[in-house]
Amino acid sequence: MMIQDSxxxxxxxxxxxxxxxxxxxxxxxxxxRQGYNATSxxxxxxxxxxxxxxxxxxxxxxxxxxxxxxxERVAPEVDETAVQPVATASSAAVGIRKVFNGVADTLERKxxxxxxxxxxLALELSLADPDFREAVNGVFDxxxxxxxxxxxxxRPEMDLSRAHDLATLIVASYSGAMAMAKASQxxxxxxxxxxxxxxxxx
Amino acid sequence: MMIQDSxxxxxxxxxxxxxxxxxxxxxxxxxxRQGYNATSxxxxxxxxxxxxxxxxxxxxxxxxxxxxxxxERVAPEVDETAVQPVATASSAAVGIRKVFNGVADTLERKxxxxxxxxxxLALELSLADPDFREAVNGVFDxxxxxxxxxxxxxRPEMDLSRAHDLATLIVASYSGAMAMAKASQxxxxxxxxxxxxxxxxx
DNA sequence: TTATAAAAAGACCGGTTGTCCTGTTTTGTC
DNA sequence: GACAAAACAGGACAACCGGTCTTTTTATAA
Lengths: 202, 202
Known about the structure:
Chain A is an all-alpha fold. Chain A contains nine helices and no strands. Chain A has a domain of 135 residues: Tetracycline Repressor, domain 2 (Orthogonal Bundle), CATH 1.10.357. The longest helix of chain A is centred in the middle third of the chain and has 27 residues.
């Protein structure tokens, strides 16, 4: 029989920020791939290689974890992949084409098309809980507003309500194209929408 | 103590078609309002005022129930509210406007915007199960094909790939507008897209 | 009337869910 | 170095999940 050194029990290094970030990363990934309801807390615990106690310390409830994922992972990702490229491109039309085709490229590099994280959570949770709905709606709104502003900056002659409606169409077609891409497991809907939107904006 | 007539126990009338239809109706409603995973089969049993045994007799598993809901409730509903109006309208543009604004009217009459049933199930189940994905994708595809055909019939000079891409944009913007409508609990995104799409089609 | 199968009822099972609770270890502060 | 608070471990818990099972009731056709 082996003699175990009882003092050499598994060491623990307290690193709350890294632990919290790790949990958020894993949860964001699982929520996107499986959905919120289909992902159990234990799934997150297992994949994050932590314990229930640690998770509960950082996020008291599953809902709190979900809201944090939206605010600290989904919203920044939307901003990074969709809002900023349009803001920094030479024109709104160019930026939008880059976003659509860029996302399509990314999807084709991956095995599975798991869709837009915002869209996924939006449809699953908007009706379930007002807090979720507000969080999701805020992300949609910031995106739409940024687009609307850019469109108006490009063409000052276009009135604001027209720019707002056009921004809505662009966000909606992106969101819908991602839904179709997920259902067909193909990036083709995104490419098709990119081509047509470019005609609209020219 | 009352003497109960044991022979007068709750009567049961076998009506398999009605029972099956009732279960499908309730399941379709609950799946749309709460989502597939958030709805337990007991929820369906309770709301349909039936029993677990009866439900299991008609649908062996929850997945079978889900597939039946898509094939026998969601698909016909999409056909009725989105495909046929476009097919019978005087022009594709008119039909599309009628669909968008008609759905917007309906949403505003209701209390809550629970979104497009196809979209809801598509995002929740496409990745979870290949059978679900295929069922959902089929509905999307029939809708897109019908639109594409109508666009080409309206304007024979438009080549087929352009018609297909345009149909994709229309379906995507509908789907996405419904997602935004659900998140914002407002029909406004649908109206905005209707206006912009009409400009595209004119 | 009787035979037979379909339809429906309702209890039951193992497994899993999200949450909470009680300890133990680490960290920061005086 | 003492001590309080934070960070983490790990299990307890009741409630519920989807699915199976057996039994009873109903409809139908010979």
